[in-house]
Every structure is written in structure tokens, then in C-alpha cells.
Amino acid sequence: MRELVYYVAVSLDGYIAGPDGQFDALLSEGDHMAAINERFGDTVPTDIADALGVSRDGGMFDTVLMGWNTYAVGLPFGVTSPYRHLRQIVFSRSHEAAGENLEVTASDPVETVRALKEQDGGAIWLCGGGELAAAIADEIDRLVLKRNPLLFGTGIPLFGRRPYAPRRFSEVGTTAFGSGVVLSEYVRMGA
Ligand SMILES: NC(=O)c1ccc[n+]([C@@H]2O[C@H](COP(=O)([O-])OP(=O)(O)OC[C@H]3O[C@@H](n4cnc5c(N)ncnc54)[C@H](OP(=O)(O)O)[C@@H]3O)[C@@H](O)[C@H]2O)c1
Fold first, then answer.
1. What is the largest CA-CA distance in the chain?
2. In contact, 4 and 62? CB cutoff 8 Å
3. CB burial class (10 A; 0-12, 13-18, 19+) of residue 72?
């Protein structure tokens, strides 16, 4: 069955962005970049990958899920279809948008993910953000965290508010880079 993979950059104190969506403190240079792009080249925005020559060969994903706030990050810059090399599904109960290979849906994300998993295809990338991740946390099969060596203090958490419900994951690989970024990969136990 297709896996749902939450692949995301996170601060040491568990934030994926600052309180106003700031992400410029996350490390975009260093020895982790080439290594991570080699394996996860299909998570680089289409235009950026094309400009930098990042290869999508051998990519694991064919679909990406975004909450509206994550999708909306590109809108002020005219980016309406950030990952158009993938099937993009944006969750929103109140917005509409049009873009190449992009659909906006008010459907229940859990039901959507379960239906996608029944279909043939590659892995499903949960891009974010924290609110959508909280809604579909129990559907996540694999977590790939790019832990950045910094504290945010406050911001948008890796997962939005959820009831107390511990879920075990087992660590399947960790690579520490000279830049201080640590890439850790976990699979849901029993998955
Ligand atoms: N560090 C990283 O790698 C990374 C990756 C991705 C995102 N981010 C950051 O994360 C931030 C956004 O995260 P966020 O937690 O604020 O928001 P989010 O999860 O991206 O989006 C939340 C919105 O998605 C829609 N949504 C969420 N749950 C839904 C549900 N169950 N059903 C239908 N629609 C639902 C709602 O939109 P409506 O209000 O329109 O209904 C909700 O307001 C951005 O600043 C972005 O830069 C960081």
C-alpha cells in the first residue's frame, strides 16, 4: 500500500515555521542540501528544481498534500502551483484556487488519505503544515524530519493541537551532517 510520509524541516523545539510563517532561519545551505535533494528531489518546488538542476529521477512521491496555509505561502509571489510535477491536493473549507495539477478540496483529509492509499501509485507526501498534520497524524506511515540546529522559541508546531494519544514510531535511519542538520527517519510501529 502507498505510504503517507510527513517529510518536513523542524527546529529543535518542534516548530516548522515562526509564528508569522517565517522559515528563513531554516538552513538552506550546507552539506545536507545535496544529500537531501538527491533522495528527496521531488519535494523541491518545480521551478526551483528546474532552475537549480535538481533531479527528480527516482523520486518516491507522486502526490503531495498541503493545508491551505502551506499552499498560500507562494501566492504573494504568484506561485499557484508550487509542486506541479506532483498531483497536488490542497485542503481548505473556505478557499478556492486553480493551478496546474492542483485541486482544492473540503473533503475530510483522513478519508481522502485512505482513498489515496487504496489507489496504485507512489508515496504520498504530507508537505504540511501542522494543522493538516494533526488532522491526519494517525494515517502517517513514515516521518522524515530535517532537524535544524536552532530554537524558534515559538511558532507553528510540527503537529497542531491533538488530544493526548502517544503513538510509537521506530527509528530506521539517521544522518548527521556537518551543517548541524540531522535527518531522521521513523516508521509507525505496526505499519
Ligand atoms: N518547515 C517545513 O518544512 C514546512 C513545511 C510545510 C509548511 N510549513 C509552514 O507551515 C505553515 C502552515 O502551517 P499551519 O499549521 O498554519 O497550516 P496548514 O496545515 O498548512 O493549513 C491549515 C488550513 O488548512 C485547512 N485545513 C486544515 N485541516 C483541515 C481539515 N481537516 N479539513 C479541511 N481543511 C483543513 C484549513 O484551511 P481553511 O481555513 O481555508 O479551511 C486550515 O486553516 C506555513 O507557515 C508554512 O511555511 C513549513
1. 43
2. no
3. middle
- CA distance linking residue 176 with residue 36, whole number of Å: 11
Torsion, Cα 3 64 126 160, to 10 degrees, reads: -150
CATH of the domain at 109: 3.40.430.10
User: Which residue among 28, 32, 68 is best mutated to probe the pocket of ligand 1, counting the most ligand atoms within 8 A of its Cβ?
Assistant: 68
Average pLDDT over the chain, rounded to an integer: 96
Domain count, the chain: 1
Q: What is the reported pTM?
A: 0.97
Cell of 100: 496546474
Structural domain span for residue 45 = 4-188
**To which residue does cell 483522513 refer?**
110
pLDDT digits over 61-77, tens only?
999 999 999 999 999 99
Q: Which protein residues touch ligand 1 with a CB less than 6 Å away? A: 8-9, 16-17, 21, 23, 67-70, 73, 91-95, 106, 109, 127-132, 135, 156, 160
